[in-house]
Each structure stands twice: as structure tokens, then as C-alpha cells.
Request: fold
Amino acid sequence: MLDLGWQELLVIGALALIVVGPKDLPSLLRTLGQYAGKVRGMARDFQRTMDDAARESDLANLKEIKDLGNDIRKATKFDFEEQGRKAAESLANPPKTANPIDEFEKLKTTPEPAAPAAQEMASPAPEPATEAPKLDPQAPVPEPEPTAETPKT
Reply:
């Protein structure tokens, strides 16, 4: 607010006394006090309105944050008691498994089924219309004829 010391107030009071006069000075001070009270009341109402608006916006934000927190809690709900019960149950009653070596032996002796796609793709080779000439294993092998691209040796 205004930073007036006692010396400044003394000067203002002396000037008011001289300008207004001693007879009208009390009514002037009363009127100034009433106006100062009205200004303070308006400032107080304004401050209260601004505080209420800030509180309402904070409450709305807090409500949104609280709802978001509840949604997160629901999404990440983890029942520790239930999980502990399941873990204790699985330790008390381990699943019955066969010996891994026996399982491996079974896999080795069991023939592997053919894939269905391979069976569909496999088709018998067409039979030739004429018989292929039989080759004599003792017959000499003919040498290829030289061409222009291959040099003679």
C-alpha cells in the first residue's frame, strides 16, 4: 500500500487543516474513512471471489486427479494374497512330470509325421513314354568336340 510515515501524515494533516478549515475537517475525515472502508470491502470481496475460483478449479483438478488415480489403481490391481496362495499351492503340489531322459528316448523312437504341405507338393514323377537306352558300363566315353570357344590341347 502507500508507504507513508508519521512525518508525511503530519504534513498532509496540516495542509488539510489549512485548506478545509477546522470546522469541516471532522466531516471530511469521516467521509474519507467511509470511502476507505468501501474500497477495503470491495478489495476483500474481489480477493474472496478469486480464492473461491482458484479453490473450485483446484477441486476440479483434484477430482480429476483422484479419478485418474482410482483408474490406475483398478488397472494395476494385484492381489498379493491370491498370488501367494497360488505359489504355496504349486510348491506343495508340484506337477507330475516324467523323467526327461525317458521323454527324449520316446521322441527318438517315434517317427516324425510328414508335414501336410510336403505331402501335397510331392507328386509322383511322370513315367517316360519310351524306355531310356541302357548304358554299357564298359563302353568308352566319347570326347566332346572342340568348339571355337574352347581351345584344343
